[in-house]
Structure formats: C-alpha cells, structure tokens
Design a protein that fits this description.
Length: about 280
C-alpha cells in the first residue's frame, strides 16, 4: 500500500509544497441524459387561447428553462442509493399560423418530470457551526445533516415539434398547472389557461442534463503555492488613454481587400446549397 500522506509540508520533485486538508463537496455519483420529451402539454397564456382555437397549425419556436425543483429521498432496501426527483418548468414560445401568412407568437408553460437513482453513500452526522447570520434570532446557523445534495445542470431545450389536437373532454383542474411555484407563474406576466381548453398544443422538446449527488467532506489535496494574481486590475472608468487602446487593435485588412482564395465546395450537396 502507498505511504499515507499527512497534512503539512511535502518534499516532492513535482513542485508540491504542502498537503492540505480542505472542506468541500465530493461528487459520489453522476449521470448525464439526452431526453427526447414527447407530447408535453402546453399551457398557454389566457390571451393566447383564442389564437390557438383559430390556428390552422403551429410550429416550433424556442424554449427557456425557468426552474428545476429537485428532491432527494433514500431508496428503501438499497443502502447508499437515493432517488433524485426533478420537475422542469419551461417557458415555451411557438408560432401559430392563422389564415394570414404571418405567424402569431403564442407563449405558455410546459412541465416535465424526471427521476434518477444515484449512489450517495451513507452518513447521518448532525452538523453545527458558529457561523453567524445577521438579522436572525439565533446567532449560530441551525443544525443540519450531511445528507447528499443533488445538483442538476441543464441547458435550454430545443423545440423539436409542436402540434394542435382537438379535445372533446374537459377537465375542471389541471394538476400540473395547480402545482407550479408562484415565481414561475410570475415569469409569464399574466394568468395561464386552465385545463378546459377545446384545443390543446403538445410539444416535443430535446433536453440535455447532468445530475450528480454531492456530500460535504474533508479531503487531503496537494498544494503548489498560494494563488497570487499576476494580472493588474483593468481600469474601466475611462482613466486609460483611449488612443493607447486604439493602437492595440489590429488593422482590419480583410475589410479593405478581398481574400485571394475562396473555399471551394467539396461535394455536390455543397454546390446545391449554394445555389438555393
């Protein structure tokens, strides 16, 4: 077995000066996903309902990820594993086509539920700290535990498809719409339509995401030196000579003279795309 390293100075030829014990979050498990989310219910803004009822078709526009609600629970009879339940809230913008050729923009909400099972190890220690929080009655932070923390990283999804369907049945309440957080609903600047619309839009989204489980822990890491910045702070209040800044800009030769060579198309498909 390799010799155990203790905190303190280290004699090493690679430039490592010291072994330091730090407190940080360690990633115990993680996963990535490329979800094709089909037939997500689109909840439009109230002022867009009449447009949808008269629309001949809809086409995809854009989608923005507003918020992800994350919950972590231990898996029964499988020690060390946890379920990570996620609910994604999207602000989706679509193009509705009526009798005129110019499309009309409609906005609304889409909700997607996802679950992952990851390993988060074990540990039920209770943690107390003397760190203060100003303005609170207790000068110390409240008791907390070292249970794993789920972190979700995601980019804005891609709108892959959108379609209109006539709905014969009517519902008095839609659970997805009733359970959205208040601050998510405020992002739309108005009330969203309930689940009793005569026509509904279903959207297909492409979502990339990374999910990981982290725990607070202490790790022994090698240290090379203190991190002292070498770069001086830039003066952004106009105190630097503007002519000196201009002299550092390269002359834009390409703006004055055409290039000597032009990239030739490599295939017939490239030629066809140029002729379109």
């Amino acid at each position: 077995m390799p010799e155990k390293v203790m905190p303190g100075p280290v004699e090493d030829s690679c430039g490592i000066r010291e072994a330091v014990c730090i407190h940080t979050r360690k990633i115990f498990d993680s996963c990535r996903d490329k979800d094709c989310i089909e037939d997500l219910r689109f909840y439009p803004k109230l002022q867009c309902v009449d447009i949808i009822n008269r629309a001949l078709s809809v086409k995809g526009g854009s989608a923005k990820l507003l918020y992800v609600y994350v919950d972590v629970e231990p898996v029964s009879f499988n020690r060390g594993f946890y379920t990570v339940d996620m609910r994604f809230f999207y602000h989706v913008t679509l193009q509705a086509y009526l009798s005129c050729p110019v499309p009309v923009t409609v906005e609304g909400l889409c909700v997607f539920d996802k679950r992952a099972i990851l390993f988060g190890s074990e540990g039920n220690a209770k943690i107390f700290s003397s760190e203060m929080r100003a303005g609170e009655p207790d000068p110390q932070m409240m008791q907390r535990s070292n249970t794993p923390i789920a972190v979700v990283e995601a980019v804005d999804p891609i709108v892959l498809d959108a379609r209109i369907m006539d709905c014969c049945c009517k519902r008095d309440c839609d659970c997805d719409l009733c359970e959205i957080p208040t601050f998510v609903g405020d992002c739309f600047g108005g009330e969203l339509s309930s689940g009793d619309d005569s026509r509904r839009i279903y959207v297909t989204l492409g979502q990339f995401s990374i999910v990981r489980l982290e725990r607070d822990t202490q790790l022994l890491v090698p240290v090379y030196d203190y991190c002292m910045p070498d770069k001086e702070c830039a003066c952004g209040d106009g105190c630097e000579d503007p002519c000196a800044l201009f002299r550092n800009i390269s002359f834009p030769v390409g703006e004055f003279f055409p290039p000597n060579t032009v990239k030739r198309p490599e295939s017939c498909d490239d030629i066809k795309s140029c002729c379109k």
